[in-house]
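Shipment paperwork, digital attachment
Item: protein structure file
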Amino acid sequence: MEEIDKTFNEAVADGRIHGAVLLAKDLTGGNIRPLTHSFYKKLQLTHHIATGKVNISRSYGVRSLREEDPEKRPPMLTDTPMRFASCSKFLTSIMVLQCVEKGLANLDDSLEKLLPEVAGLKVLTGFDEAGNPIEREPKSPVLIKHLLSHSSGLCYTLTYPLLHQYRKWQGLALEQDYDNLDQNFKYPLLFDPGTSWAYGPSLDWCSRLIERASGLSAEEFLQKHIVEPLGIGSDNMTFELQKHPNMQARRSDMTFRGDVTFTAESATPSTGKLQYRDESYWHQDIQPHGGQGIYTTPESYMKVLWSILSNDGKLLKPETREFLFKRVLTPEAEKNFDAYCEQFKAFVPGVPVPVEIKHSHSAGGMLTLEDCDGDRWRREGNLSWSGLPNIIWQIDQKAGICSLWAFHMKPWGDPICVELGTKFEKAAFLMLK
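Attachment content:
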């Protein structure tokens, strides 16, 4: 790690980044404890124990550029709270699967009972000459499993001109910064459920599904079924930042790199100065958005990754956990997912990997379908995703390692962050050799 420390410290010193957190932890195949229950013995499932070949916990730089005097800027730490944005999706997927385990929902259930407002959405096909939307009934219903795999037909508005036009017709802003799910995401589907793939607000709606299925608020469910079992503490993970002054006092501000030129094909790295930027979500809680609304610390999120990698049963039963690593898309939907990766290249969530590598999607995130560099980096079956402020996590069952890198800086897919984070991740994998 000496070379990584040198690289990141230099990046902070020369102003390329303000700070970063790097975490990684491995399993070692020679130290595996069989699960003793007869059910697990039948399935030949195991609970892995770490032996410490890789156990990285590093932080660099500062968590805020708000103070003009560098000496007054607080340090970035591994327990610095951040807005984990779309990394929230993995936590929400786990909570939905916990509802399934408890018999509160079924993955093949349609949404009429738990999310009738989504079940009633039609497919948008275009607009008539008067500018009114043309919609049709979907050929099949949205199922809960479609929400987990982004195959529901729900799409974020960013890259879909039809939705730009629909939001204008609604009289609502294109940017989804309202304080409730309905204003942000209640608009038509763009394809029949289960037939394609598109990045969208499916997991945002799942926070409401969890509430209706369980009778608990999304915050109560998060605390009871993720925070408490892992010993995280409510001041380290929440939907409701305003109710946690301790987190507010410790949190990272958002940093923004100006002068970055983006196209659908590439990003031109910035030489501009890093800037402090205030954000509305620091000051007001909104309805729980399961796809983007969780605040937590890197080391707390790492506890979730480790629980899933080590198969310790604290969050999910082993047989349910395996669903997180299972391909669930149709062949046509997988083609569309790969096309999305090609379109966005390094900007697609969780894809610092080459676009020529084939991908799919599970109930938990992106699956890498091929080894990325032999046995030197992400292996076949790797599960990953990311969050807007350049936070990327991965779980690799084949290599036996999980990792997280967090810069808490915009814009998404910043080339400098991706380059540095990928260098760290590859170094962690090479430590297994």
